[in-house]
Amino acid sequence: MLNPGMQRARVPLSSPPYRRLVIKVGSAVLSGKEGRRRLLAIADQVAALRGEGREVVLVSSGAVATGMARLGLTQRPRTMPGKQAAAAVGQPVLMQLWEQAFAWHDLKVAQVLLTAEDLAHRHRYLNARHTLKTLLEWGIVPVINENDTVMVEEIKFGDNDQLSALIASLVAADLLIILSDIEALFDADPRHNPQARPVRYVEKVDAEVLRMAGDDPNQVGTGGMRSKLLAAEKAQAAGIPMLLLPGTRPGVVLQALQGEPVGTFFAAGQRRYSGQKLWLSQLPKPAGEILVDAGAARALREGGASLLPAGIRGVKGSFGVGEAVRCLDPRGNLVGVGLVNYSSAEIERIMGAKTRDLEAILGYKHSDEVIHRDYFALASELAAGGFG
Ligand SMILES: Nc1ncnc2c1ncn2[C@@H]1O[C@H](COP(=O)(O)OP(=O)(O)O)[C@@H](O)[C@H]1O
Ligand SMILES: N[C@@H](CCC(=O)OP(=O)(O)O)C(=O)O
Questions:
Q1: Domain for residue 115, yes or no?
Q2: Its Enzyme Commission number (predicted)?
């Protein structure tokens, strides 16, 4: 949903002070001849923001692009192991650049490499949160990237735009800033449509807005504009506004926060959840699937019920206690996602059974419910780019 009256993106004057920021820097900003200069300019701005009493978490892409430069490759490797090898070469070089850039300002950096799996386990997610919180308390600038060398296609976040939105929720940021190589969101892909006009304000990321974006990235990036819109959608669902800015322009973050009209501002949405349920609704990948019967599907969808063993007809995949799984109805439609109190092996033994028989079957009982209602989010409530 656009607001045609609002021509230029301004951080609204009525906005909160934006004390905690997550700033994502795209590969396009950090690569090429100008990459080094832009990295230094971003570090200058982060240092200035820190000086104003704000906290900043950086999400930095660029490991693959930096590795390519270091290895003298002119084309992005096509295979997954090729990209991973390039990232393994590039990541330490990239961190060294951030380390040096921040050292000028007497600031220390910390490298945090995450996989989607890390955030899909509640205890690992909470560990990541504690670590980031501690780093911020110590006055350190965390620099996060996907752990490219160990991730596999099935469990990757998709790209760092998605990761940055998840991190914004994780640290309860006041604002997510995405720095790319483009002035703003345009109403059509500007590479194919020279008449495309910038959109300065987006109230809500809906189908009309998603239609504007191409999903093929620039030469070095990954997700394209579509993935930035999906990140905005995730941030909006968490009640966090997002600002898309041209990271190629020095000083642009400070200008935007002073109210200058630059980039595209995505309003904070109505926060749908907090805590556990927010995390569930944004998870990138499920650990497995539970097939439920029609009665259980109705009870979950309409009655806000917990999932009992009696309503389970099948299990797919192998998962442990506490993992997040998809629940599918008899037609294969997604009912929602939830955290299981039993492993897939246990569910295979107790599916279809009455609650009172669980102890006799297993010899113990963790709980009556396989998924408790407080740990379940309906399909209609999931963020785009999540389980869906
Ligand atoms: N509607 C649109 N508005 C702006 N940019 C778009 C649009 N559709 C596609 N793009 C392209 O998306 C690119 C940015 O995405 P990406 O390559 O993933 O960047 P990054 O490396 O910063 O993550 C821009 O360079 C632009 O060419
Ligand atoms: N982890 C990858 C990032 C890939 C990625 O999402 O890139 P981009 O679209 O430029 O944010 C790297 O460091 O190269």
A1: yes
A2: 2.7.2.11
